[in-house]
Design a protein that fits this description.
It is a single chain. With 268 residues, the chain is α/β, with parallel strands linked by helices. The chain contains ten helices and eight strands. Strands 2-1-3-4 form a four-stranded parallel β-sheet, with helices on both faces. Strands 6-5-7-8 form a four-stranded parallel β-sheet. Helix 3 runs parallel beside helix 5 and helix 6 crosses helix 10. It is globular and about 60 Å long.
């Protein structure tokens, strides 16, 4: 059958994604991506270390980032994203910025924008005007504290927290556990809830939690994709999520229902 009339696939714009070796939620990233954008993923080399501050440092070394970015260059992405929260907050704000610079230096085009999950988190909090947040993590206490220090450096106060203390298999955490942690973390007044770790499933629980908690709920994968796609001049897709849809934010003006016409309908 002649299918030449189809003209071939539509042109795709690309986001190059560097993820840790144990990242297991590729499909979740794709769920925020519009049809005309492709994700080009690569992973850092395997190291026999459990999830910890040591692992965060290993998977964020500049040499490792450079090798990963060079592996992505053949696909010609228009923006680079480092999809790991702990790996991008472990060095503080200065360390996060240095990671972005290292990724850009590894490309042939030194104007190529680069971002990290933790940098995207701060941008998302600015977008939502959130300075007091509740925090959910699957990490140990020490890794969670390092995230709080990163946030404090940016002027963000953590009002409540919940963590699981996991060092492996984070992608296997069920939604019910994420929801339970969120309810535990939101104790006092908070402007938003952040669910950390790109290996923690969150996509389907965000609308549910926003409806229940009455505050914006953002997650590591969500902010990463939101920020990367914004750099492309396009928008992330997702059902009724405050970060993506300003109309879903608390206090947003609600559309009035259409007015009913006066009197009986006109005769045909």
């Amino acid at each position: 059958m002649d299918v030449s009339f189809l003209g071939g696939p539509r042109p795709q714009r690309g986001v190059g994604v560097v993820a840790p070796f144990d990242f297991a939620l590729d499909r979740e990233l794709w769920r925020w991506v519009p049809d005309d954008v492709s994700l080009h993923l690569t992973r850092t080399p395997y190291v026999p270390v459990e999830v910890s501050l040591d692992l965060a440092r290993l998977v964020s070394e500049h040499e490792t980032l450079g090798e990963a970015v060079r592996a992505l260059s053949a696909a010609e992405p228009e923006v680079l994203a480092y999809a790991c929260t702990s790996g991008s907050f472990v060095g503080g704000i200065a360390g996060e910025r240095a990671m972005c610079e290292a990724m850009t230096r590894a490309t042939a085009d030194e104007a190529l924008p680069a971002l990290t999950t933790s940098g995207a988190l701060l941008d998302a909090l600015d977008e939502l005007d959130a300075r007091r947040i509740a925090l959910v993590t699957p990490y140990t206490v020490s890794v969670t504290r390092a995230l709080e220090e990163y946030l404090a450096e940016a002027g963000v106060h953590v009002t409540g927290r919940a963590c699981l203390g996991l060092t492996r298999h984070i992608w296997k955490v069920p939604y019910r556990d994420v929801v339970a942690m969120a309810r535990h973390a939101v104790r006092g007044a908070a402007d938003a809830l952040f669910i950390s770790c790109t290996n923690l499933p969150t996509y389907d629980v965000i609308p549910q939690l926003e409806a229940e908690l009455r505050i914006p709920v953002i997650s590591a994968n969500q902010v990463t994709m939101w920020s990367a796609l914004r750099r492309l001049g396009t928008r992330a897709v997702g059902p009724y999520q405050a970060l993506i849809d300003p109309g879903a934010r608390p206090g947003a003006a609600q559309l009035d229902p259409p007015a009913l016409p006066d009197g009986p309908p006109p005769l045909p």
